[in-house]
Design goal:
4-stranded mixed β-sheet, mainly beta, 339 residues, 11% helix, rod-shaped
Length: 339
């Protein structure tokens, strides 16, 4: 029985050696296009357990210069899982191509200092994270978006601008001097705070602020015109203020001079010098016969206290001063011509 067991052990060893030789032969055939240091047959070395191991020199693939393309025929390249796998290309740029229907197109290339895309990137609704700076292709190489400790910085060269579109319409344009709006600005009930000057399209028309208050500036001959329902109601010119509607003073208030200099109150558009004590102009009606109450109402106004001068052009003695009473009647006194 002992001899039989020794013979069985010897037979198994022979089978193992034969299998190993066949495996190496197949490997040499598969690598026939690659310079290899495989021996014609492996050297078997018996271990302590009695099983043979394979010993050979290095396969020399790390120093191999290929003479033809390697066709994987649909098989995978399996990378090592014990640590990082590195692709090292010396003195060249790696191109990644995509072939379809016999034609190929470059997808991206990797150089020593950059990854350069040849096609668009579709991130498929995923995030792009940990970006430091995005630079854009331009004539000045100075247009970029970058992150800083205080926030995101949007930079355009001094000869360029930032333009924000909706569809084909530029709604906001920002350059070194101005922010231009391409549509009305709707504050949606919010405020505009800490504004400096507000300059209008026509030169010299400005609203500004000062320690004394707001200043509204229009260059002569321009005016300030206040409209209600598209109708001018109040207009300020260089030399006058025009009130175009009835004007009311709050009860208890006075219409008075703002200084010691007298004012004039006129019922007609008169020119001339205001009297040193002030001027109050009364209306005058002229005729050859004394006026009736109806004529006086028409010419001097049908209000209590209305007054006016009737000058008789036929006889000076007929001239009178009229005043209307609260009863609707007119009262008068004759006037004597100053000589």
């Amino acid at each position: 029985m002992g001899k039989a067991r020794r013979f069985d052990s010897y037979s198994n060893d022979v089978d193992n050696e034969r299998n190993i030789s066949q495996l190496y032969g197949q490997a040499r055939q598969n690598l026939s296009g690659v310079g290899s240091s495989f021996r014609s047959s492996p050297l078997g070395v018996n271990t302590v357990s009695g099983n043979p191991t394979i010993t050979s020199t290095g396969d020399n693939l790390g120093n191999h210069t290929a003479t033809q393309d390697l066709n994987l025929a649909g098989n995978d390249i399996i990378l090592s899982s014990d640590g990082d796998t590195k692709f090292n290309v010396v003195g060249a740029t790696v191109l990644f191509m995509c072939s379809n229907s016999g034609s190929s197109a470059e997808v991206f290339r990797i150089g020593a200092t950059e990854l350069q895309m040849a096609q668009n990137i579709d991130v498929n609704e995923k995030d792009i994270e940990n970006v430091n700076m995005i630079t854009f292709k331009d004539d000045h190489n100075n247009n970029f978006i970058k992150s800083s400790t205080s926030g995101i910085v949007y930079n355009a060269h001094s000869n360029d601008h930032h333009k924000f579109y909706s569809g084909l319409t530029a709604l906001v344009t920002i350059d070194t001097a101005n922010i231009s709006l391409g549509a009305p600005l709707d504050m949606h009930t919010n405020n505009i705070n800490s504004s400096g000057n507000i300059n209008f399209t026509n030169t010299g028309q400005v609203i500004t602020t000062s320690t004394a208050g707001l200043l509204y500036q229009a260059t002569n001959p321009d005016t300030h015109d206040f409209l209600v329902s598209a109708v001018s109601r109040f207009e300020v010119e260089q030399s006058k203020i025009s009130l175009k509607e009835d004007t009311e003073l709050t009860g208890g208030k006075r219409l008075a001079s703002s200084s010691a200099t007298e004012i004039g109150i006129f019922v007609r558009n008169e020119t001339g010098t205001i009297g040193t004590l002030g001027t109050v102009q009364l209306p005058e009606y002229t005729a050859t016969t004394a006026p009736t109450n109806g004529t006086l109402d028409t010419n001097f106004g049908a209000f209590q206290g209305s007054s006016g001068i009737f000058r008789d052009t036929d006889t000076t003695a007929g001239s009178r001063f009229y005043i209307r009473g609260s009863d609707g009647n007119w009262y008068y006194s004759f006037l004597t011509q100053q000589t």
